């Protein structure tokens, strides 16, 4: 029932939560705020009975255990995921009689931020050079985007050079309260194709990351089927100590929450400590929800949210409406908070300076533990050349997206740089330094505060506005460094202010990665290596030979607060940049249906749209046998394309000289399939030789012949004999980014099932969306403890699995029952149809046939 209310001086239509609570006898104050947003979604979908059931369970702290169809207010994508998504929609259009039926049913924003790379860094013209090279390399992709912008309704493209998707979302796109096409108000909710879409949870906007395949279904009018997970409270107490950064808080929280096993739950922050965190601090915490495994990390709307909206240039009338709507709907944080079935206590006062590494974001360490953490990874002495040695930092990047949206963190980096310059400290020549702000506003306030020049003196020139180093777009190492690393077999390091440091993610030649605050990135760049205890040892010596310690350079809280109050103004955000000439000059096709170019190495008509449902899996072979914590970086190709790799050879044979990156080639299944499972740090136990599972470098064993082959070539050989494939894995399979190609690539290779001990949320859903069956091994057992080697032939009994959720597996003399990790009726429909695209195509064909009758 729609209610009409006077809010902020205007009459507004909405679905009233207080009225619903009164009618159903629900204690709304006991329901977590996250749950209240879901209740409103159910009311808007015309499901008051289901809303009453969900509300009653949440109010008493019970597990919701309820399936619902979630329809967000909008969809948000970046270009690495957005272009493949639009390629899929273009493919659907080319296969139906009425192309216009394939059209977004809700607003979609594409932010072009992942394609720029730090080819040039440490020089004043780095930004101009990188942006020019970006446009040159990506002409074909951007022309496709421009076609899509005109071909599809409700699709908005934010051109390159504006900022990273999450910061653009915070500063420009998020409204906190949405106005629908019918004029009705609702909470602003968002589904994104980047796993860190959760960053906007810090503003009280509920949203999470999904695969592009799920986003496609949403865009075509289907709701996202979810089984509402438990809502877990994180009760914050205390206050952050002076000298502790927002990054320190989130790295410490990430380790703690991983230990608390919050995989797949909805986290909600509560308690008096919430008031101690600014909105950017909250967004920093919410950004890393995928790193601690949560579906979302929600901070309810409060006065600090409203202050941030004003600070970032939102109109006063819009902010007033947000406040009035949230107050009416009981979405404005108040009192002691709601009831949770489980609450995790976290004392902000217990957080100290932190880093995370050397290979996972939950590996939180103190400053004094840094040398030991690297020694555990690579215990060899620091041998090398005069240019670079073992344990040297070869990349130091203040890069999107965890901290670059946080003025406190960025200003602190500028002040550390200023004091370092004043003392005469410099950065060693083997360290590649770069600054990739999350938006142009960051550059402006650093410049206005006089800090940009200090950062530039140390080599931290602006290299671009996008997800650069943190996504593998780090470009080449400084001259001579890469050659020395390869020649001497050195284990070298990167330090960055991003959120992911998985092996080889930042750069193929860089073994270890450390996450740190922007200020610590500057400090470690000055040292030039990780063999240092930053608590006790100096960063270097000043002009007079006096040791300079980290505490000598560190700014205090009052100094940072004064700079923020003076230089972070609404005017920085209110006026966006004008049109960019290079982008505007790119031409594009016209028309409803895209004209595919069979010679293109960027945009190809995908083969998986016409996939058939998975039949019996008998005589299957294991393509790979993997261990724990396999990330989507291990599975999906990322970063540079090596010339001697299957993908590099494919491009060379077609006359391509500038390979660009795997991310830019996601619209071409031929390139991506050749790079799948090609990570040089992937450990494939099929290749164990008795001396331990070394890095397999994208190779596997073709079991029948006993030959060691590149994964792609082995898959081709299996395909020629009609052999279906599976993958064996351990715990947390698919952790990390929401990469569609971590599911699409295996499908193209012929993989039809993955047997693992546990799956990360987004990747599990992506497997279902590609028609790949995610199967859980028996509880407490690994594939090795079951007696498997991966050399067996596998028979999987799929009959009746939808009803029972169970699949019988026989592999040689080993037999066991696996459980299908499929979590809703909607997922079963998609999986059994062969994937979401065949499912959607089937629905569209059915509609057209019904219309013809």
Helix content: 25-40%
- Strand tally is 32
What amount of the residues lies in strands?
15-25%
Shape: globular
Give the C-level CATH assignment of the largest domain: Alpha Beta
User: What is the averaged pLDDT score?
Assistant: 93
CATH architecture of the largest domain: 2-Layer Sandwich
Structural class: alpha/beta
Strand order of the largest sheet: 24-27-28-29-32-31-30
CATH topology title of the largest domain: Aconitase, domain 3
CATH superfamily of the largest domain: Aconitase, domain 3
Number of domains: 4
> What is the CA-atom radius of gyration, in angstroms?
26 Å
Please give a structural write-up.
This protein has 853 residues and is of the alpha/beta class. The protein has four domains: 3-70, no CATH class; 74-350, Aconitase, domain 3 (2-Layer Sandwich), CATH 3.30.499; 358-574, Aconitase, domain 3 (2-Layer Sandwich); 608-636 and 676-845, Aconitase, domain 4, CATH 3.20.19. Helix content is 34%, strand content 17%. The protein contains 32 helices and 32 strands. The strands form ten sheets. Strands 24-27-28-29-32-31-30 form a seven-stranded mixed beta barrel. The longest helix is centred in the C-terminal third of the chain and has 17 residues, at 836-852. It starts with a strand and ends with a helix.
């Amino acid at each position: 029932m729609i209610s009409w209310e006077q809010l902020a001086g205007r009459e507004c239509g909405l679905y009233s939560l207080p009225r619903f609570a009164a009618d159903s006898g629900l204690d709304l104050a006991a329901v977590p705020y996250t749950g209240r947003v879901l209740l409103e979604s159910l009311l808007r979908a015309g499901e008051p009975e289901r809303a009453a059931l969900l509300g009653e369970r949440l109010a008493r702290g019970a597990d919701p255990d309820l399936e619902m169809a979630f329809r967000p207010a909008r969809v948000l994508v970046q270009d690495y995921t957005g272009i493949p998504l639009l390629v899929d929609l273009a493919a659907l259009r080319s296969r139906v009689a009425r192309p216009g039926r394939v059209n977004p049913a809700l607003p979609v924003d594409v932010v072009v931020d992942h394609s720029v790379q730090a080819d040039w860094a440490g020089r004043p013209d780095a930004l101009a050079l990188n942006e020019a090279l970006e446009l040159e390399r990506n002409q074909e992709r951007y022309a496709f985007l421009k076609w899509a912008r005109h071909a599809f309704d409700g699709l908005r493209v934010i051109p390159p050079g504006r900022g990273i998707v999450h910061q653009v979302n915070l500063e420009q796109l998020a409204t906190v309260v949405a106005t629908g096409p019918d004029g009705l108000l609702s909470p602003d909710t968002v589904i994104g194709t980047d796993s860190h879409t959760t960053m906007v949870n810090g503003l009280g906007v509920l949203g999470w990351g999904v695969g592009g395949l799920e986003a496609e279904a949403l865009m075509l009018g289907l709701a996202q089927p979810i089984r509402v997970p438990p809502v877990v409270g994180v009760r914050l107490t205390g206050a952050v100590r002076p000298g502790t950064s927002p990054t320190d808080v989130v790295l410490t929280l990430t380790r703690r929450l991983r230990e608390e096993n919050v995989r797949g739950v909805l986290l909600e922050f509560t308690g008096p400590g919430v008031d101690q965190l600014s909105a950017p601090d909250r967004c920093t915490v919410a950004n890393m929800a995928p790193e601690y495994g949560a579906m979302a990390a929600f901070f309810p709307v409060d006065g600090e949210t409203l202050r941030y909206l004003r600070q970032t240039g939102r109109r006063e009338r819009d902010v007033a409406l947000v406040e009035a709507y949230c107050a009416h709907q009981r979405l404005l944080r108040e009192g002691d908070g709601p009831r949770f079935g489980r609450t995790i206590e976290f004392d902000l006062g217990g957080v100290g300076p932190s880093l995370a590494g050397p290979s996972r974001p939950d590996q939180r360490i103190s400053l004094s533990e840094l040398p030991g953490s690297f020694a555990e990874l690579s215990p060899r002495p620091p041998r090398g050349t005069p240019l670079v040695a073992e344990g040297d930092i070869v990349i130091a990047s203040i890069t999107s997206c965890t901290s670059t949206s946080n003025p406190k963190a960025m200003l602190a980096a500028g002040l550390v740089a200023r004091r370092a310059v004043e003392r005469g400290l410099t950065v060693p020549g083997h360290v590649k330094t770069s600054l990739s702000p999350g938006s142009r506003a960051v550059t402006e306030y650093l410049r206005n505060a006089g800090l940009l020049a200090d950062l530039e003196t140390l080599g931290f020139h602006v290299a671009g506005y996008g997800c650069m180093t943190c996504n593998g777009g780090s470009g080449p190492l400084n001259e001579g460094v890469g050659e020395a690393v390869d020649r001497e077999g050195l284990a070298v390091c990167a330090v960055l202010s991003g959120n992911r440091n998985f092996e080889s993610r930042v750069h193929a030649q860089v073994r270890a990665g450390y996450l740190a605050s922007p200020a610590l990135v500057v400090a470690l760049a000055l040292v030039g290596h990780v063999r240092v205890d930053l608590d006790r040892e100096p960063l270097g010596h000043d002009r007079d030979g006096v040791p300079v310690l980290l505490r000598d350079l560190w700014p205090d809280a009052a100094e940072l607060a004064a700079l923020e109050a003076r230089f972070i103004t609404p005017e920085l955000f209110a006026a966006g940049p004008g049109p960019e000439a290079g982008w505007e000059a790119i031409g594009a096709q016209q028309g409803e249906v895209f004209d595919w170019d069979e010679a293109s190495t960027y945009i190809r008509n995908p083969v998986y749209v016409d996939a058939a449902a998975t039949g019996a899996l008998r005589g299957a072979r294991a393509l790979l046998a993997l261990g724990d914590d396999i990330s989507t970086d291990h599975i999906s190709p990322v970063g540079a394309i090596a010339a001697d790799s299957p993908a590099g050879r494919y491009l060379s044979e077609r006359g391509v000289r500038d390979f660009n990156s795997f991310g830019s080639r996601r619209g071409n299944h031929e390139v991506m399939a050749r790079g799948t499972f090609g990570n040089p740090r992937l450990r494939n136990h099929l290749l164990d030789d008795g001396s331990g599972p070394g890095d397999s470098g994208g190779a596997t064993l073709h079991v029948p012949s006993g030959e060691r082959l590149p994964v792609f070539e082995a898959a081709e050989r299996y395909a020629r004999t009609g052999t279906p494939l599976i993958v064996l894995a351990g715990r947390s399979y698919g952790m990390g980014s929401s990469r569609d190609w971590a599911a699409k690539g295996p499908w193209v290779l012929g993989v039809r099932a993955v047997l693992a001990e546990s799956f990360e949320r987004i990747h599990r859903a992506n497997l279902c969306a590609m028609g790949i069956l995610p199967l859980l091994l028996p509880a407490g057992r690994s594939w090795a403890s079951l007696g498997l080697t991966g050399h067996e032939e596998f028979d999987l009994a799929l009959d009746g699995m939808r009803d029972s959720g169970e699949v019988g597996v026989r592999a040689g003399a080993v037999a066991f029952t696996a459980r299908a990790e499929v979590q809703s009726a909607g997922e079963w429909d998609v999986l059994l149809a062969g994937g979401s695209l065949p499912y959607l195509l089937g629905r569209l064909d059915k509609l057209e046939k019904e219309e013809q009758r």
